[in-house]
Amino acid sequence: MRAKTVEDREILELIDPVAESIGLDIVRVRLMGGTLRRRLQVMAERPSDNDIDVGECARLSRAMSEVLDAADPIAGEYLLEVSSPGIDRPLTRLKDFDLFEGLEARLETDRMVEGRKRFKGIVAGTDGDSIAIDLDGEDDTALIPFDWLVDAKLVMNDALLKRGAAIRAARGEPEDDGLPDGAPEDKTNTKTTEDDA
């Protein structure tokens, strides 16, 4: 789920080692848009605390640009956007379901599971290669193979906002950062690149 399309996966293979070399993990890669102007969105974080700062976004952007310019996997112009996953982050790796246990998430599968493809509930960790989720309105914990997921994302709610406030407080950040209560900081660094071919 870190990469959806073949093109996304090719880009991920190129930039994963770049991120690792500067101590970051790639959370998700998406190449979006049509043929005229595309946007390459890369979400990254430090594995130690699942966060990233603006300086790290800029460093990763510069390092990835060198590799992408040399390999030239994207035809035409594109905008490179490097950011944090945000407070209502996507859950793209099996380990994310252990890291964010106890929080509410929305899931979508690539096949019907008990008559549906979309689910909402409280993340209950993992069991082998499956994710565990306590679904709304269900008594038992559901196990869904991770490989069946096409999308998973934390739900913005009070529990998630309180978690974000606690993390900011632990880092010694002021409570009032000028953003509406619970709004994630914008940690985006964008760069426009053009294909010289």
List the helices and strands and how they pair.
Layout: H1 6-21, E1 25-32, E2 38-45, H2 54-71, E3 78-83, H3 96-99, E4 104-113, E5 116-127, E6 130-135, E7 142-145, E8 149-154, H4 158-170, E9 189-193
Helix pairs in contact: 1-2
Fold and architecture overview:
- Belongs to the RimP family.
- The structure is a single chain.
- With 197 residues, the chain is an alpha+beta fold.
- It has two domains: 91 residues, GMP Synthetase, Chain A, domain 3 (2-Layer Sandwich), CATH 3.30.300.70; 59 residues, SH3 type barrels, CATH 2.30.30.180.
- The protein contains four helices and nine strands.
- It has a five-stranded antiparallel sheet. It has a four-stranded mixed sheet with strand order 1-2-3-9, covered by helices on one side.
Largest sheet: 5 strands, antiparallel
Distance between the termini: 31 Å
Classification by helices and strands: alpha+beta
Output the number of helix runs: 4
Identify low-pLDDT runs: 177-197
Question: What's the rounded overall pLDDT mean?
Answer: 87
The radius of gyration computed from the alpha-carbon positions, rounded to a whole number of angstroms, is 18 Å
Encode the helix/strand succession as letters: HEEHEHEEEEEHE
Query: How would you name the CATH homologous superfamily of the largest domain?
Result: RimP-like superfamily, N-terminal
